[in-house]
Amino acid sequence: MDDNERKKMFGEYLTNAQLAIINKRHRTVSITEMAVEAGISQPNLSMWKRGERLPDPDNRLRICVYLWKELKEVTSFEILDLPTPDPNSMTTLAILLMLMDAPPDVIEETKNFLKSKLR
């Protein structure tokens, strides 16, 4: 799949994701609200939704994690060729920290903390 196809597919996915969030919350959810909740700028989210651009690496992770938390949906990771988190895995947070270049000791502390809480 080339970049233009990926842009278009991701834009369509974001439109469908917004509709799914609206359906889940039983109220209107604006692009601005989604952007704030995801920690990204509204203009960027609008460009992605229109299929004009793909997010940079930092924003890729932000939007994917946001959609994963909102919808438990992994399609955004797949479209953007990112490792897909397993919602049933206690190492999911550690994987996300690795993607954000967290230091190894922070990743290990997080894994140990999660293990202790899940016992």
Give a quick rundown of the structure.
By secondary structure, the chain is mainly alpha-helical. 68% of the residues lie in helices and 0% in strands.
SSE order and pairing:
Layout: H1 3-25, H2 31-38, H3 42-49, H4 57-71, H5 75-79, H6 92-99, H7 104-117
Name a few traits of the molecule.
single chain, 119 residues, mainly alpha, 434 Repressor (Amino-terminal Domain), 2 domains, globular
Structure description:
By secondary structure, the chain is an all-alpha fold. The chain folds into two domains: 3-84, lambda repressor-like DNA-binding domains (434 Repressor (Amino-terminal Domain)); 85-119. Helices cover 68% and strands 0% of the residues. It is built from seven helices and no strands. Helix 6 (92-99) packs antiparallel against helix 7 (104-117). The longest helix has 23 residues, at 3-25. The radius of gyration is 15 Å and the shape is globular.
Report the helical percentage. Answer: 55-70%
Relevant CATH superfamily of the largest domain: lambda repressor-like DNA-binding domains
| C-alpha Rg (nearest Å) | 15 Å
Our measurement of the CA-to-CA distance between the termini, rounded to an integer number of angstroms, reads 43 Å
Largest sheet, in brief, is: none
CATH hierarchy class name of the largest domain:
Mainly Alpha
Number of helices, where a helix is a run of at least 4 consecutive DSSP H or I residues: 7
Number of domains: 2
CATH topology group of the largest domain: 434 Repressor (Amino-terminal Domain)
State mean pLDDT (0 to 100 scale): 77
Q: Rough shape?
A: globular
Low-confidence runs? none
Give the SSE order as H and E letters. Answer: HHHHHHH
Percent of residues in beta strands: under 5%
Q: Which CATH-level-2 architecture of the largest domain?
A: Orthogonal Bundle
Strand pairing plus helix content: what structural class?
mainly alpha
Q: Would you report the number of β strands?
A: 0
